[in-house]
Amino acid sequence: MPATTDMRFRIGSVGIAYLNTVLLQLVDQGVVSLDDPVARWFPALRQADQVTLRMLGSTTSGYPDFESYPPFVKRLYEDPFQHWTQQELLDLALARPSWYEPGTNWSYSHANFVILGQILERVTRTPVKELLRQRVLNPLGLSATTSETSAVIPGPVLHSYTIERGFFEDATYWNPSWTTADGAILTSNICDLAVSARAVGTGRLISRAAFREMLDPGTVGLGGPTKDCPATLCVPQTAQHHFGLGVIVQNGWILQKPSFAGYSAVQSYLPSKDIAIAVATTRGRTTTEVNSAETVASQIGALLTGR
Hints:
33% of the residues lie in helices and 13% in strands.
């Protein structure tokens, strides 16, 4: 079935940008500081007195990523429709030693966002789903973007396909409960994604000081393999390409590029040219890219900027 602009799909890590937007709103309000230790809310968590909110948002805590943990991968592919609880995910992540001392390296770890979501709930006494609705989705007018507590996608649905289990199959309703904080698992359409790209890329919902923190929380210069963290996970962060607080800064673009179960998307914004790009793709039988939307977005960006 041909895709249409009103079709909805999963937007994965875009929700991480929204989580960090809420965090920075709370910083603006003086409710929390980015350098508050996690121990303030989770005193029993490993290294809770050393890991800060900044480290969770920028994924520099050192907590391992359960996505690369063989027991998790085995269970996931045995039943990709199963629901994962937040506690199950943390137990899997913390079953291994930390990959490095907090704040000394960079690695993408979903565990950070699970913990961050729970802290935001404790700080505000409000579920993440409602926090995002009140503080991000409604203010931006993202009427087609919703937080789902199950694998449901409101219609009309853009179906996804994958070969992750060794054969080509419909993966539309694989359960995304492991991908981020409960309540930040979102579906959207391409029009909302374009609005989101510009809003996140301009820091529309936060102060200028908070926006500077979002783009440069101190990750530049970090990254590099350790005995516990391979180069594919502990990736060098440079001024040209680094992870901020829930966003990627890449050659002047501010973006997120979710990929899950055959879905790929990009929302990107170039401040110097005021260009917003939103792309969503699904995997075909011969697709080779991890995120084919990124390839398309790069080509569109090159055409619009002459680069």
